[in-house]
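Input set for joint prediction.
Command: fold jointly, output tokens.
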Amino acid sequence: MSKSYRDGLPISPENFVDQLMRLKRGSIGRRDFLGLTGLGIATAVMAREIGIMPTPAFAAESLGDRMSIATWPNYHDPATFENFKKDTGVAVEVNVFGSNEEMLAKLQAGASGWSLFVPTNYTISTYKKLGIIEPLEMAKLPNFDGSQEDPRFTGEGTIDAVTYAVPKNWGTTGFAVNTKKLTKPMTSWKEFWDTAMAEGDSRTMVHDYQLTTIGNALKYYGYSFNSLKQDELAKAEELLLKVKPHLFAVSSDYQPGMRAGDAWMTMCWTNDGAQLHRDIPEIAYVLGKEGGEIWTDFYAIPKDAPNKPAGYALLNYLMNPQVAVKEHLANGAPSTDARVNKLLPKEVLDNPILYPAADLLTPLEFGAAATLTDPGRAELMARFKSA
Amino acid sequence: MHGSRLRKNLLTAMLLGPATAWLVVFLVLPFIAIAVFSVGERAPEGGYQAAFTLAQYANLPARATAFWNTMVLAPVGALACLLVAYPVAYYLALQAPQRWRLILLALVVIPFWTSLLMRTYAWMYVLGGRGIPALLAYIGFEDVRLINTPGAVLLGIVYGYLPLMILPIYVSLERLDRRLLEASADLGATPISTFLGVTLKLSLPGVMTGFSLVMILLLGEYLIPTLLGGGKVFFIGNALVDLFLQSRNWPFGSAIAITLVLVSVVVLIAANRISTRVSGARRVDLI
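tokens >
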């Protein structure tokens, strides 16, 4: 083949007609096909992006070249995974989930393919009981420093003095209010539910999640967020059925509705509250003074992880405070790690949505494993949704 | 003689093999698994635990509202689709100029290239406060709420399933023998009675195909009511999603799934019977 100025061009007119005639005769080489259809470029790009063909310079043999993580939407700084790939040659495939139950269902079914995942506090004992996770080998996580963690948030990762999961960040479940539409100041769950049936009629959203929706209805009467008592649940059900016709939606995807102004008030998690308030200052985040939920998300490694070395490597990388601080700035949830809090800018630490006053945090409860798996609460939720 | 028959049988087996294997692996085996699950029990932490009990079926009334809502949504949604689809199919098959027909048909099909989830999500923004209501506010109609209303759900359903209704009706109208229309007119029928007595009647197989196709898919629909209806009305599809992914009561979910399949089969047979009766001896084929 001679070198010509045309060599770099995609295709010349003569060549094109040539190719076309060959196509019409039904003969085409694989390379021509890939070139003509653009599939070749697509494959090359994908191979680079998802690491089918690792960049040799960075490929560390023992880690392999790819792994997969299961986590929550908008929960990481995308640069984290790119930098991890640059350092180790391991491409990270991110699977996003909507609920702990979906994650659990997938892991229970087996062969999830994940080497790291992000469960919430109340699922860890269940994972341990089902034998889905195993103790973490702390020697492989030198960046993790237990002495720097706030014990209130890290407790549920450790069962019988064995660590099964290490914390990512914590948060609360309160409600977001558009204060331009609902001007009366609110401070309690009682006001949330009463407003939903009055000024907030057909503008209020509750989670499509039994733990928080039933839990916060129980708070109306001052009962425990985790109550499994028949009579208390019956009262909560009565309230929920009464509120149902007044609701705008039963959905955990509340940001679009709040942003568009269709919904004026919604149950809300810390990080969504922070994002909504950042973009629309009149949306306030309220913690019910009766209490409600506090939570911690953890990192854990499934027992059947296909690439455990990479899972540990990524987990250790994420435990580096310099990396973690970027994660917190990206997703807006508060950190459990004192080393990270030292690195966070003052305006983040002073943001009452992220770091509420201590007296508001005191009455909050962690969701319990029994609350989540209780069939009675699941049926109550189904009755609420079908009412 | 003998050899050629053998070869013919072998050929038949080879031709049917892949489809049969497909059906066995992706339809029959999962169905058996679901049937086995449905007589089991929910494990304490969720999932399935082996047992032999009909308790899950006895518990079906706990989802009676969901069944009822679905039984209303499916025919109403299919009917709404039909009312919009028939004129379109009629125009495409009998009125549109020949050279435009293919392009118009392609336009009907093209939206299918994007996932229903994305298209429905787009409707969320069109109907949401910063979409059409913002335009209405601009011309003086304040605080109109379109999203999360029954109308929004109906719109989403018609939009999502329209092509499935248009195509079979189009096919049956396209095969229509035009001479029958002329004959009807020659014999003194008005255009309306020609339409009712000839066109509509001969296109009924297509109508019934489209109707049953849309209706069966609507029996399992949960996405559109969730996104455009705000999840306030509970359908069987929603009940199944919750049971498999939220409370992880797989046995009860399986019992509901089996019941839903049986109901779909009954609907299909009924639709077939009806259309065979109204349109004479013609059989109805699903696509």
